[in-house]
Every structure is written in structure tokens, then in C-alpha cells.
Specification:
Chain A: This is Tripartite tricarboxylate transporter permease. Chain A is mainly α. Chain A is built from 21 helices and two strands. In chain A, helix 5 packs across helix 10 and helix 5 packs parallel to helix 13. Classes of the chains: A mainly alpha, B alpha/beta, C mainly alpha.
Chain lengths: 505, 327, 153
């Protein structure tokens, strides 16, 4: 087997060392909101010019995949997604940490991430060219429906309070409109303020919406931030393992779904983890406990967002169309090195390509020990340090992180204002996670919508454009299923049980 | 604060393992004679991996060799570049913060509305490359030549769709000029970047694409280039005819340059321009650029103003189809 | 009328006006750019009207989950918001390191809910200052992010 020879290439001590460093660095960068994989990868690109191309790529890949995983730490321990793809991890991760199961949540997230990552890379290794063909079947209409499918999770997030959840999601969509429109080029909702021309930065928005309410709650109540670790201490590896084995269907489904969404250029980890979460919730027999600390939620989102790494490299390597921003940087690094991507990459540049893919696999496996050690340390630190240190520390990371995104204090101001507003909304019993969903999915939904509309108009069949092809129809069916299924379930329940449900404001 | 310390330690660890720590202990006041005497921050206002980024990365590769100090590429994407450009003049005018600039963006964006800067606010000191536009179709498209596409568009006004990157961008200008010169009506579908626009072409979501030569090089096996808006054929695309060969007087694309904050003193502007020109003179750089589909040019600081005036005239001819006159 | 009803009414009125502002802003946009804002605006106004209607028609006690289980110290919250606000204003003039250390000290005092213990407070402050310095250094030197140096430059 020629390919296995490349595995040995990837296993050189220097490559292993680079992968390990990459994983440590990536995990930490991912855990800090505001510092992103894109930033880390971009900073390291120049160093790869002087390195052996394959080694450089191994390092970049390791940072990228582990930073998506690192996002789970902040999500679980501080209720703030370290990266946008960890939004859905906050839903169940933080409730688990609050009740003292933070170590368990982190271990579960780690195992799920590793499995998801391995599934994604394996599919990349074995099925890249056919998967790339699927990616191309996704046109504007399909992206639009995919974003809407992601938005249907709002109804799950705000059970019993759906109108308010929808209103919050609409606020998020409105925020995503601010600035220069990609499609049409209009300058929207800036009210003449040039700081708003670029819009509300998604990461800054997320930091504000999640972090500021956490800070305010911390200082305003006497409760500890997290319940201290239970006596069962340690990694709780066995417990995590048995939880995951019990939930293996969810794990595998989420990993595959994550890979498939990952191959769509521009969709990325955030949509993947949201859609997967919604699917996991629907398929679960215990969907009510989702959002209240159900480990299945973490398994779904964390396996999905790491699976997008392997998935994202499919169009990047096969078509030269980057799946995500870090993919784009790695693609750029390849081009600067004079390596041409495309179907021939797997033949002409086989040593580099396969060494890189195996390097990614090794880096994913490294996440297990590295993640468990860092995670345990972080959980201990966050649950044991006094509030008087925790509050200013989180506040500093919030300000520094939102500044770091684009070296801009106006992002920090936007972050802060949105955060305060989110707290007020929360105390008015509006759920706040839908704001994040709207902000993240808004531009994808809008671009898909307007592009489909324009293409449909040119072809003289606007409606047909939105419902053409099996993928669109399947997505529409999933959306309807997601929206109608709870009502359907309720009807059945009602027949047997006439007790009234909670009031819906 | 344990987290913070840990973070620092690991970053230092990461930095120490082969990547070195670049310390900026140089004096705060820059002098133009010994420019550059510390690393230069080179800000790209588009996403990493785009054509602006790749060109900058190629410059970065030779920046240290030619100028003795490295350049550090940073990204400030957002608002189709407007975000970064609107902040350029608030940056330090010491020559160590430079920013990629772009025509026609810097002319067309401010015409569209209040984007936070005016064309005059952007002080470009050197244009170092231009990327010709192309019209391309998927490799398995029914259209073999530009004439076939034009004929089809004449028979079905508005039905031919072009994917392109952004609204009021170089791509849309080219599409509008193409419509004018060939006398057809087509529909432009803006995408969030060159890559998504190509994906739509490869996935047969659109008839054709207005894109750049770099993308043609990148996608060589997957797309068919019908015409290139350059003066003569490119060495990287020897089989692709120019519009001129086909009888259309159409030359254009994206002109990329390097800008500085407006308070930067004249000598320093010249020094920055010289630093860029030195890279442009490097034969290896030129051949790598051409290979990737760029056309290396060297328009130094003294000629920049006249160059912009010439380009503006071209953009004014398509103000109406781009919906700019109403604003 | 309980507390939550008033809040809900207030929130809905806010979102109805926000929807109206989005609509008003969409009036001078191109057709392409106006479609989505208008959809968002109308839906936002609609959901808020529905929320109000539902509240008026519903006689049942509102909102089963109690919104306020524990007394909250609103003053600490206000102080926190003011501190961060002032911090952001001083971020450029004082520089990132100095403004952050000052803010760290103030926030530490706001968050301290037990009696002040001088030794512990000092240790936290020193740890915080070291952490701020370290993160700032990592940002400027490793990630190449320029930060305002302020009066320390």
C-alpha cells in the first residue's frame, strides 16, 4: 500500500512534535473567545515558507482542528462559545458545568471531537472526489434552506416561549444586515456611523451576547459560578465513555452530518453544529432535557464541528474552493509554495497531500490527551478561583478578545452594548441564544435568498428556483418536520394526558 | 488568572519551537532613509486566501530579501474591504502600517453611499499588479466560444447569468462593460467572493462567470476561459484569447496597490513605494506572479495620481448600469 | 398586571418600533438590498403584536418558571457596566495595559462579596497584572496585533 507509506512520512519525530505543538496552541487559542483559528493560521503561514511544505501543513492543520475543539472549553465553563462553531455546545455544556459535571462535559466533548475529527478526515482520505461533486450540487437555494433549517432550532431553544424566541432570532437577523451588503452593495442600518459599515462582527457579537450576561449574573448574585467538582473527581473517563457508547448512533450520525455540511464552502462549523444539534434533539427519546444539560447535545455539536475540518478540506483540495476561512489561508499557503490544488493534487502531489491528511489524523488523536489535561486544569481553575479574580479576568479576556478580532476598539464597544442589551432581554424573559443564531445565519440566508431570486428571475421561474432539485426539497421537508413534529407529538400526548402545558407568552 | 498565565506560557512555547519571537524594540520614530528598520504590518482588507491575500503573500515572501525586514500580513476583512479602508487614516502614519488598496473598489464603493471613506482618503503609493478579468464557463458547458455566448444572450435577453464577486466590484464593472460593448443584456449574480462565485459556476448554478485570471489558473481543468480582458495573452493561460483578438476593446480588472495613512510624510510615502518597487523588480517574484495569473506592474508613487484619473474615466462609463447615478 | 406583563408589553413595543425603524431604513435601498430587511421588519412587528395579543387574551397566571428566585444586587451590576464603559473610553488614551489593570482592580472590588482580605486581594491584583501583561505581550509579539500603548509609550 503506497498510501500507508505516506503515513510513515507523517510519523517523523519532527512532524509529531509540530502536530503536538499545534494542538496545544490551537486548543488554547480556540478556548479564548476572540482569538480564532484563522488568526493563528494566518500568523504562522510565513513560517511555513521556510519549512518543508508537508510539515508546515501538518502544523497548520493541527492548529485549525484543535482550535475548533478548544472552543468547547469556554462554551462549557464560561457559557461563551470560544469559536462560533461552539455556540450549540453552550446549550448543554454550561448547564452540566453549573451542576458540577464540568469535567464530565469536557471529557465527553473531547472524545466526541476526536471521533468527529477522525470520521471527517477518514472520509476526506477515502471519498474526497465524489464528496466534492455533492458540494457543487449546493446552489444558492440550498444554502438558503440550510440556513433556515439552522434557524428552526430556535423553536427548540425557546420551548414554551416561541414567539419571544422568534423575535430574538429576528433581532439577530436584523443585526446581520448592518453594514455594506454583499449582494447589492447597499449600505444598511449604519445610521451614518462609519464604525458600523463593516457590520456587527459575528465573533464580537457572540462574545457580548454570551459573556456580558455571565459577568452581570456573577456580580449580582451570590451563587458560585460553577458548582465545585464532585468527589468523583478526575477525568471521569469511564463515565464519559459509557455515556458515549450508549449514544453511539447520535455520535456517528452527527460526525457524518458534520462532514457533509463541512464540505459545503462557506457553511462551516457553526451551521454544522446547529443543524446537527437540532437533528440530535429530534431523534432523541429524551428531547425535553436538551438544553438543560443533556450530554447528547454536547456529543452532537462537538463531533459535528470537528468533522467539518476533514469535510472542509474536500472542496479545498479537490476543487480549489476553500470550505472555511482557515482552509482559504492554507490554500493560499499552498499556492504561494507553487503547489497547484485540484483533482491532480492527490496524484501529482501525493506525498504532500497524504502526509498532510495523515498529519491531520494524528493531530486529531493528540487532542485526546492534550484536551483532557488542559480541560481538567481549566475546569479546576475556573471552579475554584474566587469571583473577585474570575470576574475581572473574564472581563479582561472579553475586552481583549473582541479587540483582537480586527484590532478595533469599536468592535469591543459593539460587543459591550450588545451584551448589556442581551442581559436586559434575558431579564425580560426573551431567550438570547436565538440572537446568536440570527447573527450567524443571517448573511448566508440572505445571500442564498437574493441570489436564488435573481437567478430565478433571469430564468423566468422564481418559485421553481427555490424548490428545484432533490436537495432543496429534502431540506424543506426537514424544516417542516422540525417545525411540525413537536406539535404532532403534543397532540398525541394530549390525547392521553389532558394536563395543560405551560403558558406561552 | 491561572488561565492567562497558562495561555502566555504556551504561546511562548509555541513561539520558541522554531518560530522565534519577533521583538519590536526599535525606536518609535521612523526615518525614511533607513526604512524599513522594523517589521512592516501589511493589512489586507479581504479574507485570507483571496487574490489580494495571495498577491500580498507573494510579496511577503520577498519582502525581507529585498528590504531587510519582514512584512507581517494581517487581515481586516469586512464590508467588501470598506471596513479596513475606512480605518486606514486612523492608523499610525509611520510607514510601518501599510494596506492593500484596490481599483475599482476604492473609486466605486464611496460612490455607492457612505461607506466611511472617500476615494481621496486612500493614499495609494504604488500599484504593483493587475489581475485581468476573464469570462469563463464550466468545462462541460455548451458554449465553446465567446461569440456563442453572445448569440445566446441576444436571443434570450436577461437569461444569461454571470456569477461574480461582490456588488459594485471589478467583476460587476466588467460585466456592465461587456454588456455595453457586445450589445447584450445579461444578469449579474453577486457572491461573497471569488471562490463562491466559482463554486456556483462549477455547480451549473449560473451560465458563466466574470472572474479573474488567477481563478482560471486555479481552476484550469474545470473551467473554459472564453476571453481575457488583457492587452495580450498571458503566459499562464496561453490558449485563452483576449477580448481584443475577438474584436472587443475591453481591457480591465483589479489593480492592486499599497496605501498608507494620509498623514504619512512625502519622503516616507516614497520610501514605501521604493520598497514595493524593489520587490516588483525581483525576477523570481515576477515569474511567480505571472505563473499564478497576475500581471506584475510597477506604477511608482510619482505616477499613481495620473493612473487613478485614467481608471476613473472608465468607471464613469458604467455608472448607470451599476445603479450609481441615483445616489 | 404583574411585573412580567409590564416587561413583556415594554419589550414588544420596543421590537415593534425597531421593526418600524428597519422598514423606514429599507426605503432608500435598492430592491435587492431591501427584500430581506423588509421581511425581517414585518415578521418582527408581527411576532411582537402576537405576543401582546396573547398576553391580553390569556387569563392564566403568566410564565410558570419564576423569573426572580433570588434577590439580586442590581447596584453591583450597574457599577460593572459603568466600569467597563469607562475602561473602553480610556482604552486608547491610557493604553491597553494600564487601563486594563485599573479596570481589573475596580472590577475585583465590585465582584468581592465577602469582607476584603488584604493579602488575598493583593495576590489577585498581582496575578491579574501579570496576566494582563502576559496576554498583551502575547498579542503584540506573537499574534502581531497592535494594541494602544497609551501614556506608557
Amino acid at each position: 500500500m503506497e498510501i500507508l507509506g505516506y503515513l510513515l512520512n507523517a510519523l517523523t519525530p519532527s512532524n509529531l512534535m509540530l502536530a503536538l505543538c499545534g494542538v496545544v496552541l490551537g486548543t488554547i487559542i480556540g478556548a479564548l473567545p476572540g482569538l480564532s483559528a484563522t488568526m493563528a493560521v494566518a500568523v504562522l503561514v510565513p513560517f511555513t515558507f521556510t519549512m518543508d511544505p508537508a510539515s508546515g501543513l501538518v502544523m497548520l492543520g493541527a492548529i485549525y482542528t484543535s482550535s475548533l475543539y478548544g472552543g468547547a472549553f469556554a462554551a462549557i465553563l464560561v457559557n461563551t462559545p470560544g469559536t462560533p462553531s461552539a455556540i450549540a455546545t453552550t446549550f448543554d455544556g454550561f448547564p452540566m458545568a453549573r451542576r458540577g459535571d464540568g469535567a464530565l462535559a469536557i471529557t465527553i466533548a473531547t472524545i466526541a471531537s476526536v471521533v468527529g475529527g477522525v470520521v471527517g478526515v477518514t472520509l476526506l482520505l477515502l471519498l474526497a472526489p465524489p464528496l466534492a461533486k455533492i458540494a457543487l450540487q449546493f446552489g444558492p437555494a440550498e444554502y438558503f434552506w440550510l440556513a433556515i433549517l439552522g434557524l428552526t432550532i430556535v423553536s427548540a431553544l425557546s420551548a414554551g416561549n416561541q414567539l419571544k424566541g422568534l423575535t430574538a432570532a429576528l433581532l439577530g437577523l436584523a443585526l446581520s444586515l448592518v453594514g455594506v451588503a454583499t449582494v447589492g452593495g447597499d449600505v444598511r442600518l449604519t445610521f451614518g456611523n462609519s464604525n458600523l459599515v463593516s457590520g456587527v462582527n459575528i465573533i464580537a457579537g457572540l462574545i457580548g451576547i454570551y459573556c456580558i450576561p455571565v459577568l452581570l449574573d456573577l456580580v449580582m448574585s451570590r451563587d458560585p459560578h460553577l458548582q465545585p467538582a464532585t468527589e468523583r473527581g478526575g477525568f471521569r473517563l469511564c463515565e464519559a465513555g459509557s455515556t458515549i457508547i450508549r449514544d453511539k448512533v447520535n455520535l456517528i450520525r452527527s460526525s457524518i452530518l458534520g462532514t457533509l455540511i463541512g464540505i459545503l464552502p462557506g457553511a462551516g462549523g457553526s451551521i454544522a453544529s446547529l443543524v446537527t444539534y437540532a437533528e440530535a434533539r429530534r431523534a432523541s427519546s429524551d428531547s425535553k432535557s436538551f438544553g438543560k444539560g443533556n450530554p447528547s447535545g454536547i456529543i452532537a455539536t462537538e463531533s459535528a464541528n470537528n468533522a467539518t475540518v476533514g469535510g472542509g478540506f474536500v472542496p479545498t483540495l479537490v476543487l480549489g474552493i476553500p470550505g472555511t476561512p482557515p482552509d482559504a489561508i492554507i490554500l493560499g499557503a499552498l499556492m504561494v509554495q507553487g503547489i497547484k490544488v485540484g483533482p491532480t493534487l492527490f496524484v501529482e502531489q501525493a506525498p504532500i497531500t497524504y502526509t498532510f491528511i495523515f498529519g491531520l489524523l494524528i493531530a486529531t488523536l493528540f487532542m485526546l490527551p492534550v484536551g483532557l489535561i488542559i480541560g481538567r486544569f481549566a475546569f479546576r481553575a475556573i471552579s475554584s478561583i474566587p469571583k473577585a479574580a474570575l470576574v475581572p479576568a473574564i472581563a479582561f479576556l472579553t475586552v481583549a478578545g473582541s479587540y483582537a478580532i480586527q484590532n478595533s476598539i469599536s468592535d469591543t464597544v459593539i460587543m459591550f452594548v450588545l451584551g448589556c442589551f442581551a442581559w436586559v432581554m434575558k431579564s425580560f424573559s426573551y431567550p438570547i441564544s436565538p440572537i446568536a443564531l440570527g447573527l450567524v445565519l443571517g448573511s448566508i440566508a440572505e445571500q442564498g435568498f437574493v441570489q436564488s431570486y435573481l437567478i430565478g428571475q433571469a430564468q423566468g421561474d422564481v418559485l421553481g428556483r427555490f424548490f428545484h432539485g432533490p436537495i432543496s426539497l429534502a431540506l424543506v421537508a426537514l424544516i417542516l418536520l422540525g417545525l411540525l413534529y413537536p406539535t404532532f407529538k403534543k397532540l398525541i400526548n394530549r390525547r392521553g394526558n389532558t394536563s395543560r402545558q405551560g403558558n406561552d407568552i | 488568572m491561572k488561565l492567562n498565565r497558562h495561555n502566555y506560557k504556551s504561546k511562548i512555547l509555541g513561539a520558541a519551537v522554531g518560530f522565534g519571537l519577533v521583538l519590536a524594540l526599535q525606536p518609535a520614530f521612523a526615518q525614511s532613509e533607513d526604512y524599513p528598520s522594523k517589521p512592516v504590518n501589511y493589512i489586507i482588507v479581504f479574507n485570507a486566501g483571496g487574490a489580494s491575500d495571495i498577491a500580498a503573500r507573494m510579496q511577503q515572501k520577498y519582502f525581507e530579501e529585498e528590504n531587510g525586514m519582514p512584512a507581517v500580513v494581517q487581515y481586516m476583512p469586512g464590508g467588501g474591504g470598506a471596513q479596513g479602508w475606512s480605518r486606514l487614516n486612523n492608523m499610525e502614519p509611520d510607514g510601518y502600517t501599510i494596506m492593500g488598496t484596490n481599483l475599482p473598489h476604492n473609486v466605486l464603493q464611496p460612490m455607492a453611499g457612505d461607506v466611511g471613506y472617500e476615494t481621496e482618503d486612500i493614499t495609494t503609493v504604488n500599484f504593483f499588479q493587475y489581475t485581468p478579468n476573464i469570462i469563463a464557463v464550466a468545462a462541460d458547458s455548451e458554449f465553446e466560444t465567446l461569440q456563442q455566448l453572445i448569440d445566446h444572450a441576444k436571443e434570450n435577453p436577461g437569461a444569461v447569468t454571470f456569477s461574480g464577486s461582490g456588488s459594485r466590484s471589478g467583476d460587476e464593472v466588467m460585466k456592465a462593460r461587456f454588456d455595453q460593448i457586445s450589445g447584450v443584456t445579461t444578469t449579474y449574480i453577486p457572491f461573497s467572493g471569488t471562490s463562491p462565485a466559482s463554486a456556483a459556476l462549477l455547480g451549473h448554478q449560473v451560465t458563466a462567470s466574470v472572474t479573474y485570471t488567477t481563478e482560471a489558473v486555479n481552476q484550469s481543468d474545470n473551467i473554459r476561459v472564453l476571453a481575457v480582458a488583457a492587452e495580450e495573452r498571458l503566459s499562464s493561460l496561453p490558449d485563452a484569447p483576449t477580448f481584443k483578438e475577438l474584436g472587443f476593446d475591453l481591457v480591465g480588472g483589479a489593480y492592486r496597490g499599497v496605501g498608507v495613512p494620509k498623514d504619512t510624510p512625502e519622503e516616507l510615502r516614497q520610501a514605501v513605494s521604493d520598497a514595493i518597487s524593489r520587490i516588483s523588480a525581483n525576477a523570481k517574484f515576477r515569474s511567480e506572479m505571472s505563473e499564478a495569473g497576475f500581471v506584475p506592474i510597477d506604477i511608482p508613487y510619482s505616477k499613481v495620481e495620473a493612473f487613478i484619473v485614467d481608471q476613473k474615466e472608465i468607471y464613469q462609463s458604467v455608472e448607470e448600469p451599476l445603479g450609481l447615478t441615483s445616489n | 398586571m404583574n411585573d412580567l406583563k409590564i416587561k413583556t408589553a415594554f419589550g414588544s413595543i420596543f421590537f415593534i418600533s425597531l421593526g418600524a425603524i428597519v422598514w423606514w431604513q429599507s426605503l432608500n435601498l435598492s430592491v435587492m438590498g431591501a427584500v430581506f430587511p423588509r421581511v425581517v421588519s414585518i415578521t418582527m412587528m408581527l411576532t411582537s403584536v402576537l405576543i401582546i395579543l396573547r398576553m391580553l387574551l390569556s387569563k392564566a397566571p403568566l410564565w410558570s418558571e419564576a423569573t426572580r428566585e433570588k434577590p439580586k444586587n442590581i447596584w453591583r451590576g450597574i457599577l460593572l457596566v459603568m466600569t467597563i464603559g469607562i475602561w473602553l473610553m480610556l482604552f486608547r488614551p491610557l493604553g491597553m495595559i494600564l487601563s486594563s489593570i485599573l479596570a481589573f482592580a475596580v472590577l475585583m472590588l465590585i465582584a468581592e462579596q465577602d469582607e476584603l482580605r488584604p493579602l488575598r486581594t493583593t495576590l489577585i491584583l498581582i496575578g491579574g497584572a501579570i496576566g494582563i501583561f502576559a496576554v498583551t505581550l502575547a498579542m503584540t509579539e506573537v499574534l502581531m496585533i497592535p494594541v494602544p500603548k497609551g501614556i506608557l509609550s
